[in-house]
Here is the input.
Amino acid sequence: MEERIGMESSIAIAEVVGRCDVDVVAAYPITPQTHIVEHLSEMVANGELKAAFVPVESEHSAMSVCCGTAAVGARTYTATSSQGLALMHEILFIASSLRLPIVMAVANRSLSGPISIWNDHSDVMSDRDVGWVQIFAENGQEAVDLTIWAFRLAEDRRVSLPVMVHFDGFIVSHMIEPILMPDHETVRGYLPPFEPLLRLDVDRPVSIGPVGIPDIYTESKFLQHKLVVDAYQPIVETLEGFGKYFGRHYHPVETYRAEDAEVLLCTMGSLSETAMTVVDRRREKGHKVGLMRIRLWRPFPFEDIYRAVGAVQTIGVIDRAVSFGGPPGPVASELKAAFYRKPQQPRLVEFIAGLGGRDVALADFERMFDVLLSTRKTGQVPPPAFVGLRE
Amino acid sequence: MYEIRFHGRGGQGAVTSAELLALSAIADGKSAQAFPSFGPERRGAPVIAFARISESPIRNRTAIQEPNLVIVLDPSLLRLVKVDAGLQPGGTVVINSQKDAATIRKETGISARLVTVDANRIAREEIGRVITNTTMLGAALAAQPLVPVERLEKELKGRFGRIAERNINAFRRAMRECRITDAA
Here is the structure.
């Protein structure tokens, strides 16, 4: 059974984490993730959720606790954002290399300085290479759905990897919107109890996390890379399974009105919804524009990208983070690398937008589509642009 | 789609107003959003909150720049903030003020359809505190039937517990006592 309710996305996420029968929540509050952790702590304190809530003194400790509890076979959840994710950084590698199926919400937020509590993807990009599965939710419903799915995928024995569920801070986390909330029994019907691949058990002692001498380190990294790459198929299968069970379908890459598009705009996260509105406006005017939304960030869905792009020769990529002194857009770099393997590369127009909470308005999307359409016409790719920059 | 912007001061319940409106619309089967202006809000400082209501799913997560309806919870904001900035043609401004529409127009230059209500007095008399957010929702619904009155009253009941009745009384009184003036 599902109930359609109006609810703040953070509260809905916390509620559904409870319905996933988590055993442990270890977290430290940080804006804009705070409401999730506060609500989970209330649920535990009220006796609604029979789990251990471990209040810690930092995110570094939060992730360390999560590693310990996941290693003994407890279903483990945490949530963070921005500086909090940055502080977890070194332990994130431990979680993935030990194959600990922790689920973590990341309410995406910029990194200091200047100090900013607002939304962008600089936290995501700083932890791109930590070996976690990373997926993006574009709205509250998706954040709820993908949280449930994340436990299923993480605990899939073919995978056994930690999963980050990303959604935009404030823009999704603090939004009150209609959400179809599955009840406890429905979630239980989808999510079987956690049967860990390996568990720390005093009766059957094992060592995990020993030293990797040069003789085996390369092999372990090869296998870790292969494991994340090979997670792709289970991801697709479990997303399909989710769709069959709940009736809401998710894919590694999704498109909007891209069938006969001549230019595509590529987004990741909640900008996609606003972009769709502008795609609709342009389609009404007869402009053949479409949208490509990257949902799965790691493993990177190369084949889905090739399929979505098809024969389109002009693509705009919105990045919400900067690789300082680099290409500069991290998502654009990824796409360029993906197409380097191909005999023909599309023209790639790079936009940096929505940094540190800067609103990306409908008019901004209109201007980006203007640039793409003129790039298509002239064949001249403009240099990377910071959208709405005041000079 | 109908877009609403609330102007208040931190602690006056602008965000709660936006929430109550959106929750009523969602309970009524519509799509709706409510969101704050996402800043480090301080008690007493000017704040804004937003709501969107639509018959179809909402695919827009930008800040509301061109609202159909503006609700001003605190009369002192009129001197500080251009509350009708970006207002859609045919839009409405609902203001908590003792002053009449003509005076407000002269002082602020607002030419749009205007709804005025002395929400401070109503809130003081009905709730016992000058917290005008629920009162102003009454004036807003009188100006524009955004959601059925019963739905909103149900949300007020759910939200305010033992002081719900006083809030509902203030809400109803504002519906009756507000004055609507056509665009100049």
